[in-house]
Amino acid sequence: MTMASRALIVMMTCVLAGLPAHAAGRFALEQAADGIHVHRGQQAESSPENGGDIANIGFIVGKRCTAVIDTGGTAAIGRDLLMAIRQTSRLPICYVINTHVHPDHAFGDSAFKDSGAEFVAHASFPAALAARRGAYQSRLAQTVGDVADGSDIVVPSRVVAADDTLQLDLGGRTIRVQAWPTAHTDHDITVFDEQTATLWTGDLLFVDRIPVIDGKVLGWVKVIERLRALKPAHLIPGHGPINRPFETAFDSEKNYLNDVITKMRSAVEMGRTLQAAVDSDSDSDERAHWILFDDYHRRNLTAAYTELEWE
Amino acid sequence: MSKKWNVGAAPARFLSMICLAAATMLPMAAAAAEAPEASPTAVWPGMRVSLFGTRPINDSAADIVELVAPSRAEDAATVPIGIHTKLVQSPDRYIKKLYLLVDNNPSPLAATFEMTPNSGRADIETRIRIEQYSDVRAVAELNDGSLHMASRFVKASGGCSAPAGKDPKEALRNAGKIKLRTDGPIEAGKPALAQLAVSHPNASGLVLDQVTRLYEPAYFVRKINVSYAGKPVMTADVNFSISENPNFRFYFLPTGEGDLHAEVVDTKDLTFNGDVVVKPDAVAAN
Ligand SMILES: [Zn+2]
Questions:
Q1: Residue B125 is inside which H or E element, if any?
Q2: Chain B neighbors of A102, CB-CB under 8 A
Q3: Which helix (H) or strand (E) covers residue A224, if one does?
Q4: Are residues A237 and A260 in the same domain?
Q5: Closest among A250, A178, A182 to A213, alpha carbons compared
Q6: Nearest alpha carbon to residue A214 among A87, A307, A84
Q7: In-domain check, residue B4
Q8: What CATH number is associated with residue A72?
Q9: What's the structural domain count of chain A?
Q10: DSSP string spanning B12-74?
Q11: B207 and B84 co-located in one domain
Q12: Which residue of B16, B25, B166, B202 to mutate against A (max A Cβ within 10 Å)?
């Protein structure tokens, strides 16, 4: 697809602030709450067909400026997002907030390099990026093809330490950026919009798609409790439909993770080997609840087992 | 005669490998493109000569050694490996050494384990890193000098150049903690299972820091000595092909009350120790 035709589609499918969400077209936006716009990624693995468009990304518009939250799996997706923002608001982009370094959320950063925005992330984000960028980059080209060109993740100019929060004033609305202890990764961030009580979770919440443990499962279930206590009125997960009731969404994820913890903890206590432990739960009852279960469940068991050995 | 693999030279030699797709790079892991299967003839002949010269190797050795490994790894940085042996360690006939080889790893000789009749059984369970699709081999050397090999092809990639750990700061903080325990009943004269777990980043030195353009320093467990009642039961030379938080299951032959002792040495020459007092159950000790 040429740049021109891509731009055209973006323009055609863009919604203006205040209008109801619609899902048609290639780069669709949904409105989670007043001034909060979400592009929903597909519930699939990255592929040449979906161009790496698999994560939820979007932006929050204030009276003074706009904050971007996650930028998508490629520079091309980042550019689509940028154009969608331009269709919605003429205000400057003051912040690009990376919820974490996973490539499906962050490779669109490069589209915002020259936007003048300040890049905000967790204090452990730079180290994770330094260690992973090279491997992520070569993997991206293999996964999505040429559309990966120009994709890069930007080193944050402002970081938030674990368990700290940062208030950002967008003009007439304040968003609270919170950095968490190790959970989905060792550098997860959430964004809470106080005006609408909207919680943007990054990958601390997966809806319908199987959660992936790349941090600590024990830390994650604790963070889920704290997120649930925020009682958000609107909820934007890292993957999956927006605005599920928060109780259902968090409880489904917590149930899955607790099931993994219980089974792997008992396997460790029984002295089962890693292989035997993973084999013992390949047919979990949880399979029915999650998209991509067979792609990630055994891997999650592996991660949980090796963590629980050192509990 | 068996030349030592030069671990220090690995990062330069395998520079290009570092940029390989990493199966542990979430969340796109499961979409991994199929890497071409490495030809089994590429690395093995040279390795074979440097380790074993022209000595014959029995490669239909199911009655002596079996290698258990997944055909496709869930996590290339944590691939469970079992070396199961089929003979009783007796002073007359025993496995004195096991070689664990990963053909296509930067340092293909992942580990050697020296065993004695006091090992009871020469089995080993551990977890390894695999950098690219590879044959994995276990070669058992008997006390009579004969060599017996089992191998498996494992599909995994990016295990060595994966960033160390899911929480690298915590891994460094906890380096050197040891857990040593016995599993199951202890009966005098019957091989008993033990498990040694070492908290250690076991960093490969193959991860390029994209900001500093420097490789993170290699830092791994290199030597393990386990004794029971003062006699060696398992001595291992290992490297970063062993996963973060190295974990080994092995056997020893309890004879009476005695101390099972593990000494672990890493590449900074730090030594960590673990002990457990072994008391055979009264019923079995009569
Ligand atoms: Zn993620």
A1: strand B124-128
A2: 26-27
A3: helix A217-228
A4: no
A5: A182
A6: A307
A7: no
A8: 3.60.15.10
A9: 2
A10: HHTGGGGGS--TTSTTSGGGPPPPPPPPTTTTHHHHHHHHHTT--EES--TTTEEEE--SB-S
A11: yes
A12: B166
Q: In which domain, by residue range, is B27 found?
A: 10-36
C-alpha of residue A38 to centroid of ligand 1, in Å: 17
Nearest Cα residue in chain A from B177: A310
As a whole number of angstroms, the distance between CA B234 and CA B196 comes to 11
Are B119 and B80 members of one domain?
A: yes
User: Is the domain of A213 the same as that of A258?
Assistant: no
Whole-number Å distance between alpha carbons of B179 and B197: 5
Chain pair A-B, CB pairs under 8 angstroms: 131
User: ipTM of this model?
Assistant: 0.81
| pLDDT attached to residue B134 | 94
The domain tally of chain B equals: 2
Clarify whether residues B276 and B165 are in a common domain. Answer: yes
pLDDT tens over chain A, length 311 residues: 444 444 444 433 333 333 333 333 479 999 999 999 999 999 999 999 999 999 999 999 999 999 999 999 999 999 999 999 999 999 999 999 999 999 999 999 999 999 999 999 999 999 999 888 888 888 898 899 999 999 999 999 999 999 999 999 999 999 999 999 999 999 999 999 999 999 999 999 999 999 999 999 999 999 999 999 999 999 999 999 999 999 999 999 999 999 999 999 999 999 999 999 999 997 889 999 999 999 999 999 999 999 999 99
Which residues, 6+ apart, have CB-to-CB distance to A197 below 8 Å?
A230, A231, A232, A233, A234
Decide if B2 is inside a domain: no
pLDDT number for residue B168: 80
Residue A271 domain boundaries: 253-311
Report how far ligand 1's centroid is from the alpha carbon of A248 (Å). 20
pLDDT digits (tens, 9 = 90+) for A147-162: 999 999 999 999 999 9
